[in-house]
Amino acid sequence: MPSLTYFGLLWTLLFILRPYFSHEFTIFTHEFTVPILLTSAIVLPLLWLVLRPQKEGAFIGWVWTIAGILYVGWLLSYLVALRLDAGRNWVFFALFTTFGSDTLAFFVGRVLGRHHLAPLISPKKTWEGAIAGVFGAMIVSLLFVPSTPLNLPLSYGQAVLLGLLVSVFGQFGDLVESLLKRNVGVKESGKLIPGHGGFLDRMDSVVFAGIVVYLYYIFVIL
Question: Under 8 Å CB-to-CB from 191, ≥6 apart: which residues?
């Protein structure tokens, strides 16, 4: 259903940018924009499905549209909120620790991986790679403690803990996307990036990492 796809992409973008609108324009308060976006995301696709001639696949189309908007749009909005509320370096922390985790997990898993982590979801992922990913994130997290342009108000212990959380939840996000792709019978989430799949294939870990870092900042640092 191309129309629902276009609607989903537009509302996903609106959800991602919602923190920016709330930050820059007083009229777009959180209490105002969230109910409007949620309600319209649910109702407008239903209205379109009722009015269109072809009714087959209506429920599945509607469910996947809502799921995509919330999964990608709502969750990625935490990265935007993190940039606005906490600053650029916190976003760098979420990104770099995730990349450190993914990189070390990939190489160690490829060379030393023997025990499957979740064979029914992602057969190539191993416990060895997952553990290495945790260490990769923790090592990168330590770069944000010394007095450099990347400095954050974190002790070494806090940095290691947050790096561990980013890696664990980032790998969980990777498995979530693998589960969804396997459920609908596709290998990649799209063809936006040639040779690398879709946008979500590169951002599946970051989606959850951004939430973890934002919540840590709000409840621990502030």
Answer: 197, 198
Closest of 141, 126, 216, 140 to residue 171, by C-alpha: 126
Burial of 70 (0-12, 13-18, 19+ CB in 10 A): middle
Which burial class, exposed, middle or buried, applies to 84 when counting CB atoms under 10 A from its CB (0-12, 13-18, 19+)? middle
Q: Report residue 172 as tokens.
A: 């969980």
> What is the C-alpha to C-alpha distance for residues 60 and 206, in angstroms, rounded to an integer?
27
Query: Distance from first CA to last CA of the chain, Å, rounded?
Result: 45
Beta strands in 59-173 (DSSP E): 116-118, 122-126
**pLDDT of 178 higher than 90:** no
pTM for this structure? 0.88
Lowest mean pLDDT among 6-15, 22-31, 191-200: 191-200
The domain spans of the chain are 1-85, 87-222
Q: Is the pLDDT of residue 6 over 60?
A: yes
Mean pLDDT over residues 150-168, rounded?
97
Q: How far apart are CA 20 and CA 137, in angstroms?
A: 28
